[in-house]
């Protein structure tokens, strides 16, 4: 079996699924704070946001 055929076979299997899952998790780790932080700041207001930040610093 050639190296290219072996590489294609590996990418079709579990390795590719795991790779895509890891990329998906990493993408979510970048995206969720970008969406959640402005929303929470708007909903909580300055006083609520300050209380949240103070609580998280403990």
From TrEMBL:
Query: Sorted alphabetically, which keywords does the UniProt record give?
Result: Membrane, Transmembrane, Transmembrane helix
Membrane-spanning parts:
20-41
Please, which domain of life does this record's source organism belong to?
Bacteria
Put simply, this protein is called: Uncharacterized protein
Name the source organism.
Meiothermus luteus
Recite the lineage of the species. Answer: Bacteria, Thermotogati, Deinococcota, Deinococci, Thermales
């Amino acid at each position: 079996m050639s190296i290219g055929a072996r590489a294609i076979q590996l990418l079709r299997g579990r390795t590719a699924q795991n790779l895509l899952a890891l990329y998906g998790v990493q993408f979510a780790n970048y995206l969720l704070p970008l969406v959640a932080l402005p929303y929470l700041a708007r909903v909580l207001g300055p006083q609520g946001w300050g209380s949240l930040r103070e609580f998280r610093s403990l």
